[in-house]
Amino acid sequence: MNFGCALITKLVLILVANSFILFPAHGFQAQQQALTADSTDETAKGNTASDEFNNDLSIDLVEQDYDLWASEVKSEFPDLTDRAAIYRRALNQFPKHRKLQADYVTVLTWNSQFSDALSYYSSQLLNQQLPHYALNAVAISARETGNYALSKKLYLQILEDDPQYYDAILGLSAVAIRENNFVQAEAYIQKVFAVEPENEEGLSLLAFLYNQQNNKTLEKVSVYDKMLELAQDDQEITRLKTLNLLELGLIAPAKQAMESSPELYLTEDWIKLRAAQNTKSIRRIANDGRSLENEELVNKAFHNNDEYLNLLQASDSSTDKQLAYAYADRVLLLNALTRHKEVISLAQQQNHLVPQMPDHGVLSIAESYLAEQEPDNALDVIDKGFNNNQIAASNKDALQLAYYAALDIGALVTAEEYLQTLISQSPAWLYSADKQIRKPNPDYQTVALMQAMHKAYTNDLEGAEDALQKLLAVAPNNNEYRYNLANVLRWRGFIARSNEQLDIIKATDPDYLPHHISRAYNLIAYRQFHEANQLIEQLPEKEINNSVKRLIEDYDVATDATFYASTSGGNSSGSQFSSNDRNFELAAYSQLFNDHWRLLAKSQNNQSSFFGEKENILTIGVGAQYLSKNFISEFELFKVGELNSAELASRIEYFHDDYFSFNAGYQSFNKQTPVRAFYSGVSADLKSLGATYRHSEKQSYSVSWQQSNFSDGNKRQTFSISGSQKLYQSFNHRFTLSQYLYLEENSEDSERLYFNPESALGFSLAANYQQQLYKYSDISLWHGISLEMGIYEQTNFGSGEIWTARYLHQWQLSKRSFLNYSIGYKQRIYDGQTESGPDYNLSYGVTF
């Protein structure tokens, strides 16, 4: 029997084009696939065929003239299921008829009844002499049922008799492809070409083989060209060659070919074209920062994505997975353009598709949530991506995003777990299998940097600086290390040292964008707002770079109008100076203008109840504030409630460097004049001098001198020294120790309504512990306790203990607002009498 088939080439190419997982059939399998008709009930059809066989064909003809009988059966019953049923009926009468058996096992293979064919061979034909076509059919059935050893054995058995039996050689190649032995598979095909260079089945199989290998696209084009030369007008090959152009990324010629002969192409082909156009244009935008500001390219990317989505939505054959991938490209594009709200909105609208998106879509959604200060949603998206196997467990971008999201919600343990995963996946060296050769791991630098910066994010700035210095000692030309060191130095308050690092970066890479961003932050920290604004205006990607957008936001926070309000009070008892006090302060500053100036308005109301009387000092004033790198100055004209004269208040602070600052102040009416003194008709002025040494973010020390001339002739001088040391600070905890030494002298006696010691000396030591209770992006809540113990000694009245216990909350409500409050109980000594009572503090600030 001759089972050759002219349709084999086209069939195999169709399989190639659709990237079927199963490899193509050859010889008899191709013939049977081409001839197989659809069947909804094989058993019923088989019974009908048997009846027709009994009526129209004599079974005796099998023995008399088998070839005639087989030809009649083939002509009368083209359906393979019917034909197999007839062969079974004939075998009931002639069970040992070798040609009948050979054709039966072959027809079973044609009809994709591979298991039945293999079972029949094993039970009836094992070790029997069979024609080559039957052995080839059984070999195909063995291959399709995964019995590669038997398949190869049968092919080799054929080749022992006929070394030029091409179906067997190509069958061995197909088995090798199934076993992913591509080199051996190609060797078998080339063996056929050595004798018959234009063997069509060999060319078809070679094209399919190349289709399984990503690095063989050019070779596949060459195979298609040969097939076109042989087929000339074969439209299917023309179609497939066009599709292969798409695989090569040659979108323009593929588009031209498809539009010139649209009738040759299927809907799925147009989907592939739109997918290729979509992918190319969006990846260009996402991967090339310069393209982000090219409006034409951006519009083209959106247009291509729209066309792709519209085609998918209009096609009955498209799948949710295809739609998910198309929407993933959409969110990738929107995220690259920092249109994060649109990303989140689209993800919520297409929520059912998110679980099928590839990793770049999931990460774009997570990054947008993080940018919009929704870190819990960002972490949820990433965790689901890991659980759904959308994101590989080793995906470093995902692990980094998850780390930052976990930090932003205060989940330190979770963040450190992600960081440890990154560390474990990124050793400093990569070794060969035998451990004899090693090379640097390119991912190590990124993870080493994250380890160093983790110290900074958990408030160990000194440790972060040390870690970064060690990294730079090994890689002094790594500007990313140096840029982060500059940031850490700024956070520590060492702006000059930070600028030194940025100068080094500028000398080696003047266009490095992070360097310019960090420089702008340093200018803001130094109150050089004109220079900062100029630098920001020159930065590229102002509308699309997250870091630049955050810089602009932080610049606005530093220069916008602000409002502060505070109140404090207490109710003391035990001494002749005991009173019920309430103090209120309001202050408003305008938006910065002319890069240096703000207008201000202030009001202060100090109230006190004593001896059954209630008195207050109310001041209301307006003025201006001047800001520069070296100076902060304030000037205010204010009015005291019951006085008719205008009063003056001024204060100037000079910043010598990042360590030393000096201040001086004057108030023609001391706003802290005791209410009892004012009640007695006494007023006072205030002159002050001070200096501060700031050793680091952990230590600072101050000295202060003040002098007041009271209208009753009393002259008061005070001198104080204070210090503060943060002994421990971590992500969720901090412990601070502070000291305060106070000396006061008055020229007049103490026989006055207000407290006026001849001289007094006080010393106190305070410990403050705080714990972070809540964190969500820019929002945080710290609570803590403060305990102060000290000694106060007053001339002529001896000494005694003073102390304060306080519980506090500190809210950071956003980048632009805060709220602090505390309640406590304190003890003081006045003229030898112990006074004690509760007190409270409340303050709020907001930037508009």
UniProtKB/TrEMBL annotation:
Source superkingdom: Bacteria
Listed GO MF terms: poly-beta-1,6-N-acetyl-D-glucosamine transmembrane transporter activity
Location of the PgaA membrane beta barrel domain: 567-836
A Pfam family recorded for this sequence: PgaA_barrel
Listed Gene3D superfamilies: Tetratricopeptide repeat domain
NCBIfam families referenced in this protein's UniProt entry, alphabetically: PGA_TPR_OMP
Protein name: Poly-beta-1,6 N-acetyl-D-glucosamine export porin PgaA
Gene source species: Kangiella profundi
